[in-house]
Specification:
The complex is a heterodimer of chains A (214) and B (226).
Chain A lengths: L5 H10 L6 E4 L18 E4 L3 E5 L20 E8 L2 H9 L5 E4 L3 E3 L4 E2 L15 H7 L3 E4 L11 E2 L12 E5 L3 E6 L3 E7 L5 H6 L5 E2 L3
Parallel strand pairs in A: 1-2, 1-5, 5-8, 6-9, 8-10, 12-13
Antiparallel strand pairs in A: 2-3, 3-4, 6-7, 10-11, 11-12
Helix pairs in contact in A: 2-3
Chain B lengths: L4 E2 L2 H5 L7 E4 L9 H10 L4 E4 L9 H7 L3 E6 L8 H8 L4 E4 L2 H13 L3 E4 L13 E4 L2 E7 L3 E11 L5 E2 L6 H9 E11 L19 E4 L8
Parallel strand pairs in B: 1-12, 2-3, 2-9, 3-4, 4-5, 9-11, 11-12
Antiparallel strand pairs in B: 6-8, 7-8, 9-10
Helix pairs in contact in B: 2-3, 3-4, 5-6
The chains are: A alpha/beta (214), B alpha/beta (226).
Family (chain B): Belongs to the 3-oxoacid CoA-transferase subunit A family.
Protein name (chain B): 3-oxoacid CoA-transferase subunit A
Pfam families (chain B): CoA_trans (PF01144)
């Protein structure tokens, strides 16, 4: 079994983004997608703190202290990019203008529910950030995550056990073991498996029924 | 002659009362009005409700204000971050109240306040614990929760430049919460890196019209931010 590396997951996801899409990449692993968008393809990245047309990290001597991304790392602005305030930035998100948002998750359920912000109802000081806005607002939500938790529990589940970020929002999942579509009325449909992974193995590591593509 | 420019922090902070709701602008270190927060610490108002995206880090700024016991409640989207130990300790001890708000809902609640809209409906948080106890309504087949405007007594913001009418312009990603918060408070105080003559900021480039701003103070952030 050769699970996808994070770079491979990011490359596969990036390859599925068509030219011209407006995309928000969540903090953490999803940020890696930016490095894998083909150079000849124009994909416009949005950042919650008021940036559209975000470029890669600057060289150390070219850092603009006034320009960061949602993860608070220094970034650059591409030609054609723009700045705006938080309410307009979240109008972009909540008004359904983003073609795609990519988030990490603790759990995704077969009905598309996502849980990615709190691991219990009485978490000490839970932190939500913009996750609920993105999950509810973007035209599409894809999740990029490890297939199981560190201790081997499945993250693809029948129903989320953790508090929800948004119901019925996820349409596709990229894990280290495969790529899955979330199909209404059916559940998880396997689109691709990592090299050397069998359907049975994949099913054993998942907490909900997997379907073979039609 | 209208002159909103003040030269001392004592003037900038004058009249902020105990129990005020204070909006604190910025996102991360960008546009965070550090000098105004320090001045608020000096000024002494307590029993504050503070609204900011994060709940402070380290032992300076907002974290310091909380550590001194001056903050009764914090409204934010992401209280937990590297170095948010002061908040976490106070929260664990039950010494500070937390209202957690999705970031977009937080921004929209302040935009609504500034626009005279008392409440609105949003799909954000529907079906989650953060929608609990809130009125829900269906429009065009989708469920929405009602959120209330977030009006404040004071807004502390940072802009790149300002003039004596209170017009403000920001640098790069510096608009963030600042431009929204400036509209939502009775008293908006701006720290700016550059003071401009009237007309020097191109009218088309004014982000926050002076009508939203009450006081402007020059704060030199040094060459790193120039």
């Amino acid at each position: 079994m050769q699970p996808f590396s994070r770079g491979q997951m990011a490359a596969k996801l990036a390859g599925d983004i068509p030219e011209g899409w407006f995309v928000n990449l969540g903090i953490g692993i999803p940020t890696m997608v930016a490095d894998h968008v083909p150079a000849d393809r124009e994909v416009i990245l949005h950042s919650e703190n008021g940036v559209l047309g975000m470029g890669p990290a600057p060289a150390a001597d070219k850092v603009d202290p006034w320009l960061i991304n949602a993860g608070k790392q220094p970034v650059t602005l591409r030609k054609g990019g723009s700045y705006f305030h938080h309410a307009d930035s979240f109008s972009i998100i909540r008004g359904g203008h983003l073609d795609l948002c990519v988030l990490g998750a603790f759990e995704v359920a077969e009905n598309g529910d996502i849980a990615n912000w709190a691991t219990s109802e009485n978490d000490t000081a839970p932190a939500v950030g913009g996750a609920m806005d993105l999950a509810a607002g973007a035209k599409r939500l894809w999740v990029m995550m490890e297939h199981t938790t560190k201790d081997g529990r499945p993250k693809l589940v029948e129903r989320c056990g953790y508090p929800l970020t948004a119901p019925g929002a996820v349409s596709r999942i990229y894990t280290n073991l495969g790529i899955f579509e979330v199909v209404k009325g059916q559940g998880f449909v396997v689109r691709e498996m990592a090299p050397g992974v069998s359907f049975e193995e994949l099913q054993a590591k998942s907490g909900a029924k997997l379907h073979r593509p039609a | 002659m209208i002159n909103k420019i003040v030269t001392t922090m004592a003037e900038a902070m004058a009249g902020i009362r105990d129990g005020s709701t204070v909006l604190i602008g910025g996102f991360g270190s960008v546009g965070q009005p550090d000098a105004l927060i320090e001045a608020l610490i000096e000024q002494g108002a307590s029993g504050l409700t503070c609204v900011a995206n994060n709940a402070g880090t380290g032992h300076a700024g907002l974290a310091r204000l909380m550590e001194l016991g001056r903050v009764r409640k914090i409204i934010c989207s992401f209280p937990r971050s590297a170095g948010s130990t002061v908040f976490e300790e106070l929260y664990r001890l039950g010494k500070i109240e937390l209202e957690i708000v999705p970031q977009g809902t937080m921004a929209e609640r302040m935009r609504a306040a500034g626009a005279g809209v008392p409440a609105f409906y949003t799909a954000t948080s529907v079906g989650t614990p953060l929608a609990r106890g809130k009125e829900e309504r269906e429009f065009n087949g989708r469920r929405y929760v009602m959120e209330h405007a977030l009006n404040a007594d004071v807004a502390l913001v940072e802009a790149w430049e300002g003039d004596r009418w209170g017009n403000l312009a920001y640098r790069a990603s510096g608009q963030n919460f600042n431009a929204v918060m400036a509209t939502a408070a009775e008293l908006t105080i701006a720290q700016v890196s550059r003071i401009r003559e009237l007309g020097e900021i191109q009218p088309e480039h004014v982000h926050t019209p002076g009508i939203f701003v009450n006081r402007v103070i020059h704060v030199d952030r040094g060459p790193d931010w120039a």
